[in-house]
Backbone:
């Protein structure tokens, strides 16, 4: 057992943690000082392996910086990052020193990579544009909210501990380690709970808040959730233990048998590799929740080159009148391609409208208002009936696979072209070359390169499956 783990265990004991002897906290001793949790003995479903006092969690409410944070009107991930910076600045005088000394200075997430590394490793991926814009946003947050606290001289804080680099570091810890606790404490850093590593769909432990039985007769465990980097979404972990205890503690409970000696995993939710790398700094080679996004701007670019800008704008406008929109974030509007290569319905509808003959397009214009008020399936059936020269078979209408009604040879051609255009963003190297680079990389010593390559390879494989999706359906229509 290393010195820092011994110090952490002493700290837990002094703060009334109850951590089962069936768990072993292991300092892996790898680059970056990774921590993992292993089973000392076989763990069965339902075993309670840890109880964590909420008062020991590092939140805005429990931090010594609470008055400063609240007087500045800070909240959410920004406020929590300031709390982390403040407690770190106190060193051994902080009530959380025994916990904070176990954490890395910063997590190896793209937010703290250099711009040169972002361009070199993430070009073409889902993260390239997002990370560059977020780096700028985080810096602006520091300039607007944190620098004034330092310059005011009111709070007697060390400027060197509240610099922009310290803020970026604290942000990485908050983005990758904070949990939603409850309505009183909000979200914060939860010692011990954040040491369990993630494994998609194969977690052994869930983390829950125990709700007092006086408020409800139901099974009252509240879900605990990971706070995402942007503070907008969270991933809930459920548990079914009965209530009846006080609500001052958090519990960690085994939900899947764990054999003695194996690592005990938590889950950060159903997350693809882009989100995993963005928030937590790693990827999984066979992540079934991977997706690739095709920006609406890319579709418009392709359509404008195939037809004209005016033609494209008119077709997109018609598509919007039917109440269709792509998915959206703060950066762009986009369409998701699932891990198996299946395109989002909204993209198929748009491509179908783009290829309508002028006569059918005019007909759609007359009925767009009526279609917009129908449920999705009914609207698509009526759309295709009104604009297709081919007679639809009844089994197509009732099979439930509405997408198949929209996939013409032209739409298949467009999907394949969009896959090529999207893949061109990665540069000239092939997916085979990326695979060879991954084999030569060490995932610990070359973490940035390795996980970026895994992300890029997985995205390119999905684009290949999109081409297969288009090719198979185009071939079927020719039979």
Residues:
């Amino acid at each position: 057992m290393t010195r820092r783990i011994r110090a952490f265990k002493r700290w837990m004991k002094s703060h009334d943690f109850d951590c089962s002897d069936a768990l072993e906290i292991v300092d892996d001793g790898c680059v970056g000082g990774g921590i993992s949790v292993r089973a000392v003995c076989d763990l069965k479903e339902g075993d309670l392996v840890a109880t964590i006092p909420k008062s020991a969690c590092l939140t805005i409410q429990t931090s010594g910086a609470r008055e400063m944070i609240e007087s500045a009107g800070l909240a959410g991930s920004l406020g929590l990052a300031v709390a982390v910076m403040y407690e770190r600045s106190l060193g051994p005088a902080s009530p959380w020193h025994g916990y904070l000394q176990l954490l890395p200075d910063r997590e190896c997430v793209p937010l703290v990579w250099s711009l040169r590394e972002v361009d070199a490793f993430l070009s073409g991926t889902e993260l390239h544009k997002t990370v560059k814009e977020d780096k700028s946003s985080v810096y602006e947050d520091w300039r607007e909210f944190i620098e004034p606290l330092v310059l005011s001289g009111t709070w007697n804080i060390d400027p060197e501990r509240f610099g922009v680099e310290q803020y970026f570091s604290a942000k990485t810890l908050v983005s990758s380690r904070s949990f939603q606790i409850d309505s009183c404490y909000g979200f914060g850093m939860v010692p011990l709970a954040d040491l369990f590593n993630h494994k998609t769909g194969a977690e052994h432990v869930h983390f829950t808040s125990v709700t007092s039985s006086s408020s409800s007769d139901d099974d009252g465990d509240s879900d605990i959730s990971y706070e995402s980097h942007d503070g907008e979404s969270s991933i809930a972990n459920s548990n079914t233990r009965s209530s009846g205890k006080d609500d001052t503690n958090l519990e960690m409970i085994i939900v899947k048998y764990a054999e003695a000696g194996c690592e005990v995993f938590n889950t950060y939710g159903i997350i693809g590799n882009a989100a995993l790398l963005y928030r937590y700094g790693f990827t999984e080679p066979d992540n079934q929740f991977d997706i690739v996004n095709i920006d609406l701007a890319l579709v418009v670019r392709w359509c404008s080159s195939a037809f004209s800008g005016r033609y494209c704008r008119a077709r997109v406008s018609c598509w919007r009148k039917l109440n269709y929109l792509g998915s959206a974030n703060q950066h762009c509007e986009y369409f998701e391609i699932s891990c198996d290569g299946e395109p989002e319905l909204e993209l198929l509808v748009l491509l179908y409208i783009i290829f309508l003959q002028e006569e059918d397009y005019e007909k759609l214009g007359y009925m767009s208002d009526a279609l917009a008020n129908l449920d999705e399936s009914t609207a698509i059936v009526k759309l295709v009936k009104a604009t297709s020269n081919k007679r639809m078979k009844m089994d197509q209408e009732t099979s439930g696979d509405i997408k198949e009604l929209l996939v013409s040879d032209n739409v298949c051609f467009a999907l394949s072209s969009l896959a090529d255009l999207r893949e061109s963003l990665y540069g000239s190297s092939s997916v085979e070359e990326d695979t060879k680079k991954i084999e030569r990389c060490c995932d610990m010593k070359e973490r940035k390169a390795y996980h970026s390559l895994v992300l890029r390879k997985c995205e390119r494989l999905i684009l290949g499956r999109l081409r297969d999706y288009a090719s198979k359906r185009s071939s079927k229509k020719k039979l």
Residues 24 and 419 are 47 Å apart (CA to CA). The first strand starts at residue 18 and ends at 19.
